[in-house]
UniProtKB/TrEMBL annotation, chain A:
Database matches in InterPro entries: MetI-like, MetI-like_sf
One Pfam family, short name: BPD_transp_1
SUPFAM superfamilies the record matches: MetI-like
Descriptive protein name: sn-glycerol-3-phosphate transport system permease protein UgpE
Gene that encodes the chain: ugpE
UniProtKB/TrEMBL annotation, chain B:
Pfam families named in the record: ABC_tran, TOBE_2
UniProt organism field: Paracoccus tibetensis
GO cellular component: ATP-binding cassette (ABC) transporter complex, substrate-binding subunit-containing
Taxonomic superkingdom: Bacteria
Protein name stated in the entry: Multiple sugar transport system ATP-binding protein
GO MF, one annotated term: ABC-type transporter activity
GO biological process: carbohydrate transport
Record InterPro entries: AAA+_ATPase (IPR003593), ABC_transporter-like_ATP-bd (IPR003439), ABC_transporter-like_CS (IPR017871), ABC_transpr_MalK-like (IPR015855), ABC_transpr_MalK/UgpC-like (IPR047641), Mo/tungstate-bd_C_term_dom (IPR008995), NA-bd_OB-fold (IPR012340), P-loop_NTPase (IPR027417)
């Protein structure tokens, strides 16, 4: 009993977490008549998956939304890593005046919500005629203090003697940072990538502000257009679309799962 | 193997308000094995790191050969360092680890890149690097380990890889920061022999930092004993053991530690040790007498002492004895043939020529011996 109980509790918690996903999948394969059925039985009376998924894929350019999502999330992630890794290395391993102050600023910046900056960013992008571009969707997220913090925590545990051996061998600081220290923190890179990609793939708030052109809309905004087009009536197709845009994220997490968990536990972030 | 002398001139270093090194002058000759010995916190590692260029001195300069290298980067000094933790690159194979110093020095940045590099690096250069790596691996007998990762090696094997990585670049000098302290006792003794043999074979300059006096005594040509950021005494192992310049040196060198007894020289200079008059003459005033455990003799007369403990170390026995006069204890080293027991009363004699005298300032005091026989 003692061994079963924890699993039972965890199982219940997991079931609760997974219920919305299950509901989404269930709705996406049900016929419109069955949508408001409260039954959780997995086999619908009228199997309508082909119809719903077909409609979701054909009514709106789903592939286009996905591609937009890949471009935006990829762009954000690349610039975030390029900027955060050297900053984190400097904060973790180099001695220079003002280091503690800079670290305090990083921690402070963690506390500022995106929403507080939305207006000035919007005005800035509007003035420079950059609204409705990929750049506008990515720009506010290029510098991630969360990434700096996460990498700094992880880099701190890298042995100083290896860094010193590298300096004597003739590595430049950038080579030490990228080829040795980041190499030793791949789990935290994986963990951060999952955080970043999931957050920006699912983000609706910012694209809603800067994007009105459907051709560059990321998946959640695309879904919004879709539900508008369908005036919200066809939930089956809507959920089919949602299932399609969620799938890459689930896949991404499953692939990086082991590293993700190692990265999180290693850095003591959660 | 190229070899160079290393000179330190007036090197000082502070961390915040703490003075770590004070005005250090030290000359290490070409091909010499010099140990920096001291307790932790005495500044020996900082001094080594200043030589390596990993730390900049506040004042003073570092010379390698005739060149002032004080302002040079660590990689431009052509020194090799072996770290306490070995500091091998964890994601590289042993072969890559050993090749790294050469690759970094010979290849350009694009040619060092992981994938592109294979196309850019000239084949002849890569072949030369391979040959050098094999040679270094052969010297340290780790050829069979070349394709493993450091994580799959034992401590002793990692140590050899670290040495091979140091060796391969043919440095001006080898710097070693407590390289044996992570090994178990037996392996440590073995590696000590190997290091000494390596030094003889290469004829290279070695600067070796350790807190372990046995390592320093057994391997070094000369020892610099450091206390509180100063070099307390610089000399051969024999110098330090036989003629310690200060009380602190006498205390540090020797195991078991030297016996120290209060003494006094009267107006005529005649020295009295623990109430017993002796034939030693010295400058009048209070003194401390040091006598090595193996130099104490037992006999029919002398200082009365009671055996408190007997420790057997194979060929030797160490006796801890209490002096009734001031309740201090002394240690005696005897051969295994002696059979003392706890509680036995002994008479201890201090051979005058073996006594080390120190003044109240801790400096060695010169002594003479009169012809008279005394306790």
């Amino acid at each position: 009993m003692r061994r079963v109980l924890p699993h039972l509790i965890l199982g219940l918690g997991a079931a609760l977490m997974l219920l919305p996903f299950y509901w989404m999948i269930l709705t996406s394969i049900r016929a419109p008549a069955e949508i408001f059925d409260v039954s959780l039985w997995p086999v619908p009376r009228d199997f309508s998956a082909v119809q719903n998924y077909g409609q979701a894929a054909s009514t709106v350019p789903m592939a286009r939304f996905m591609l937009n999502g890949v471009i935006v999330c990829g762009g954000i992630l690349i610039v975030q890593v390029l900027t955060a890794v050297p900053a984190a290395y400097a904060l973790a391993k180099l001695r220079f005046p003002g280091r503690r102050l800079l670290m305090a600023l990083v921690i402070g910046a963690l506390c500022i919500p995106m929403q507080a900056l939305a207006l000035p960013l919007f005005v800035g992008l509007a003035r420079t005629n950059l609204l409705n571009t990929y750049f506008a969707q990515m720009m506010p997220f290029f510098l991630s203090v969360f990434a700096i913090f996460l990498f700094r925590q992880s880099f701190r545990s890298y042995p100083d003697e290896i860094i010193e051996a590298a300096r004597m061998d003739g590595f430049s600081e950038m080579e030490i940072c990228w080829r040795l220290v980041l190499r030793g923190s791949l789990p935290s890179l994986a963990a951060f990538s999952v955080f970043s990609v999931v957050a920006h793939w699912n983000d609706l708030y910012w694209p809603l502000i800067v994007v009105s052109d459907m051709a560059i809309a990321p998946p959640p905004l695309g879904m919004l257009f879709f539900s508008d087009v369908e005036s919200g009536a066809n939930y089956g197709a809507l959920m089919a679309g949602a299932a399609m845009i969620t799938a890459p994220m689930i896949l991404c997490f499953l692939l990086a799962r082991r590293s993700f968990i190692a990265g999180i536990t290693m850095t003591g972030v959660k | 193997m190229s070899q160079q002398s290393i000179d330190l001139r007036g090197v000082s270093k502070s961390f915040g308000a703490t003075r770590v090194l004070e005005d250090i002058d030290l000359s290490v000759k070409e091909g010499e094995f010099l140990s920096l010995v001291g307790m932790s916190g005495c500044g020996k590692s900082t001094l080594l790191r200043i030589i390596a260029g990993l730390e900049a001195p506040d004042r003073g300069s570092v010379f390698i050969g005739a060149a002032d290298v004080t302002a040079r980067d660590p990689s431009d000094r052509n020194l090799a360092m072996v770290f306490q933790s070995y500091a091998l690159y964890p994601h590289m194979s042993v072969r890559q680890n050993i090749a790294t110093p050469l690759r970094m020095r010979i290849l350009t940045l694009p040619a060092r890149l992981p994938l592109l590099g294979r196309l850019l690096a000239p084949t002849a250069v890569l072949a030369q690097i391979d040959t050098d790596v094999s040679k270094a691996a052969e010297t340290l007998q780790i050829t069979h380990l070349l394709d493993r990762k450091p994580g799959q090696l034992s401590g002793g094997q990692r140590q050899r890889v670290a040495l091979a990585r140091a060796l391969v670049r043919q440095p001006a000098a080898f710097l070693m920061d407590e390289p044996l302290s992570n090994l178990d006792a037996k392996l440590r003794a073995h590696m000590r022999d190997e290091l000494a043999a390596l030094h003889r074979r290469l004829g290279a300059t070695f600067i070796y930092v350790t807190h372990d006096q046995t390592e320093a005594m057994t391997m070094s040509d000369r020892i610099a004993l450091m206390i509180d950021g100063r070099i307390e005494q610089l000399g051969t192992p024999d110098d330090l053991y036989q003629r310690p310049a200060t009380l602190a040196v006498a205390r540090f060198i020797g195991s078991p530690t030297i016996n120290l007894l209060p003494a006094e020289a009267d107006g005529e200079g005649r020295v009295t040790i623990a109430g017993q008059s002796t034939s030693i003459l010295a400058r009048p005033g209070p003194l401390t007498v040091g006598i090595r455990p193996e130099d104490l003799e037992t006999g029919d007369e002398g200082l009365a002492a009671e055996v408190l403990r007997v420790e057997t170390h194979g060929p030797d026995r160490f006796l801890t004895c209490a002096l009734p006069t001031d309740r201090s204890t002394v240690t005696l080293r005897q051969g295994a043939s002696a059979r003392p027991a706890r509680g036995d009363m002994l008479k201890l004699r201090i051979p005058p020529e073996r006594a080390h005298l120190f003044g109240s300032d801790g400096q060695r005091v010169p002594a003479r011996i009169t012809g008279r026989v005394a306790a």
